[in-house]
Amino acid sequence: MKASVKGPLLALAGFGIFATHDVVVKYLGGFYAPVQIVFFSVLMGFPIVTVMLMRDPTDGNLRPRHPWWMALRTVSVVITGLSAFYAFSHLPLAQTYAIIFATPLIITVLSIPVLGETVRLRRWAAVLVGLAGVMVVLRPGQTDLELGHLAALTAAVSGAFASIVVRKIGQEERSAVLLLYPMIGNFVVMGCLLPFVYQPMPALHLGAVAVIAALAFVGMLCMIAAYRNADAVIVAPMQYSQILWASVYGFVFFDETLSRSTVIGAAIIIASGLYILFREGKANVSENTPVLRTRTRPETGTYPRIGVMLRRGKPRE
Q1: Could you read off the pLDDT of 58-87 as tens digits, one per residue?
Q2: How many Å apart are CA 51 and CA 256, to the nearest integer?
Q3: Is residue 136 within 8 Å of 268, Cβ to Cβ?
Q4: Which of 42, 70, 87, 294 has the fewest CB atoms within 10 Å, i.e. is most exposed?
Q5: What distance in Å separates the CA atoms of residue 38 and residue 94, rounded to the nearest whole number?
Q6: Banded pLDDT at 269 (limits 50, 70, 90)
Q7: How far is CA 96 from CA 176, 199, 266, in A?
Q8: Residues facing 143 on adjacent strands
Q9: What is the rounded distance in angstroms from the CA atom of residue 150 to the CA atom of residue 95?
Q10: Model confidence at 54, in pLDDT bands (50, 70, 90)?
Q11: Which residue ranges make up each domain of the chain?
Q12: Which of 210, 177, 164 is nearest to 308 (CA)?
């Protein structure tokens, strides 16, 4: 199979697996607080990360070269994980995805002050149109906005900030540092909060948490293979296929139906995101290509970041 075909197919498979991951999160969200789900997801993911770190060929210690940026990234990832898991637990899947799909728009805006990116009229127009799409999904004044909507928006903003920070310091930090700090942050913060929300988990639900960790790992492998077989401008748009999985899964498992506002708003957001992706893929348009370099969904700190795994073993630029 040609790499130009293999890459997108692997990406579709990876995002389908991540969508299945979110279904299990939503299922467990009916029984447990997001704090507990995140904590045990990180706990189950540590063995996988440990094996990866044992194979890290680069020399060095685990002290970050940019401690303040790393601290901000860790806090952002912790907020993203908690917010995303809460949103998936309390909102329809498709609606959650539609809001989180605004992440590339926010990355574009944040790239200006953090990376010094120059965003001209066309990309600004795409951002504004995409944010209007978010308003269509939320329908303020016409529907009751819940904490889940705020959580999804928070996940989009904090996830975008974490991605921008990686783009700024990623070439100077060891992969091990970028991998470990968000997971340790999640483990410590959620561990401190866990006694206030803990509910005993039967073997079935502990197995479901293990499934979350396994799906994240397999999905990550698919995405790494996808980016190694095709250009980012071809692979990245495949993330929007998750809305199709969400529609099917939501209907089959949770009796969810798509509202007209979600369909229209998601279409606007996706169109804006695609435009930004393709604009960044053109020469002399974006110096930093922050959206293309994001690689995948907002980082939750429950599994390794795909972009970090892609550059393991490569020398820093």
Answers
A1: 666 778 889 999 999 999 999 999 999 999
A2: 39
A3: yes
A4: 70
A5: 21
A6: very high
A7: 31, 25, 10
A8: 140
A9: 12
A10: low
A11: 3-310
A12: 177
Return the C-alpha torsion angle 13, 42, 300, 67, nearest 10.
Answer: -130
| Residue 57: predicted pLDDT | 66
Task: List, in order, residues 6 or more apart from 258 with CB less than 8 Å away.
Answer: 94, 247, 250
Instruction: Give the integer Cα–Cα distance in Å for 45 and 282.
Output: 37
Inform me whether the pLDDT recorded for 315 exceeds 60: no
Exposed/middle/buried for 310, CB within 10 Å: 0-12, 13-18, 19+?
middle
The 10 Å Cβ neighbour count of residue 284 is 5
Q: Token pair 């290509």 is at which residue? A: 289
User: Distance between CA atoms of 188 and 140, rounded to whole angstroms?
Assistant: 36
Distance CA 239, CA 107 (A): 16
Q: Position of tokens 């866990």?
A: 194
Q: 209-239: per-residue pLDDT in tens?
A: 999 989 988 998 898 889 888 888 888 889 9
pLDDT tens profile 156-201: 999 999 999 988 888 888 777 888 889 899 999 999 999 999 999 9
